[in-house]
Request: fold
Amino acid sequence: MAQNGPFDPSDNIIDLAKFRARWQSNPGLGNFLGGNFFKKILLPLLLAIVGLKLVIFLCFVYVRPNEYGIKVVRVPVFGSRGVHKDVYNAGFHFVLKPFDCEGMYLFPKDLQVLDLTGAREEAAREATISKPAHIQTSDGFFVDVDASIMYKITDPYLVFTHLGAGRAFETNGLMPKAEPALKQTLGELTTEEFYNSPARSAKAELAQTLLNQDLANYGLQVDHILVRYFRYTEEIQKNIEEKKLKDQLVFKNQAEARAATEGAKLKKMIQEGQATVDIKLQEGRAYITTKDAERDLYVRKQRAEADLLVKLADAKKTQLRNEALQGSGSDRMVGLKMAEVYKGLELLVLPSDGANGVNPLNLEQTIKLFEGKK
Reply:
C-alpha cells in the first residue's frame, strides 16, 4: 500500500488478494474462525468483554481512596441538572460521559501542604511552592518568612461551587489569604521578638485561627502553620547579631554574679552546717563524759556501800565473837583450846609444889592461870 501520492484503488485490490491467498494457505485458522465454537461462544464473549470495557470507560469513574468526587450533570438523562451535593467516596460510580452529559470532578482527601519559600529543595516533595511572606515588623523592618501551611478539604461541594475544579482551592482559596493573615499576626512582633520561639508560635496559631475563619465558607481547614525560617537584610541581621552578643555578654555577667552570690551562700551554709555538726559532736562527747562520770560515781558508790556493809559485817562478827568469848561458857572454850594445846604433848608434867605450880590435870587451876572466868 502506497504511503505518499494520490489514492490508487488498485492498492486495495492487491492487499485483498494477498489476504485471500494467506487465508487459503492456512485452512486451520479459517476453519476455527468459521466454526460454531468461535461464532457462538468465543466471539460473543469477546464482544461482551469489549463492550463492558467500553461501557466502563464511557459510563463509570473510579474515585481513589484518597479522593472526593463531585458529580455535575449537564444533560439530565438519569438525574437533575447541576452540581450534586452528594460527595462520592472511593469506588466506581456511574457517570454518563458520552457527549459530556455528566462529569465527575475529583479533589484530594489527604493533607495538603503549601510552602511559602523561595527554594524548591527546602519544600516538601508534594507541596505547592509560593514565594516567602514579606512581613513588616512592628518596629518598621522587613523580614521574609518561610512557612509551611498544612490544610485539608472538609467540604468538596463548597470548594467546587465557590472556588472551582482542579487546584483552584489552592490558587483561588488559600494562597490569596495566607500571606495577609501572616502579615497581620506576625507583623505585631518586633524585630527581636522573631527570635522568641513561644511568641512566634503564638502568632502562627493566631494566623491559623484567622485563616480558618476566612476559609470555613470555602470548605477548607488549616491544621497547622509552621514558621520554619525568617530572613532579614544583611545589615539588619548584623545589627541584631551584635546586639544579641552584647545582651548575651550582659546575661553572662549577670549569671556569673548570681553564681558567685549563690556560691558564697553555699559556702556559708556549708560552714554553718559544719559548725552545727561540730557543736552536736561536742554535745555528744560531753554527754558521753557526763554519763561515764555518773556511771563511775554510781559504781564507786555501790562499791563503797558494799565495802561498808562487808566491814560492818566483819565488825559485827568480831563484836559477836568477842561477846561470845566474854559470855557464859567462854572459860570452857579456853579450857578446850588449852586441851588442844596439850593434846600434842608427849611429855608428862608432874605436879610441882608452890603457889605457881602447874598441874595440867587441874583444870580449875589452869583456868585461873590464864585469867579465865568460871
Q: What stands out?
A: Residues 149 and 225 are 5 Å apart (CA to CA).
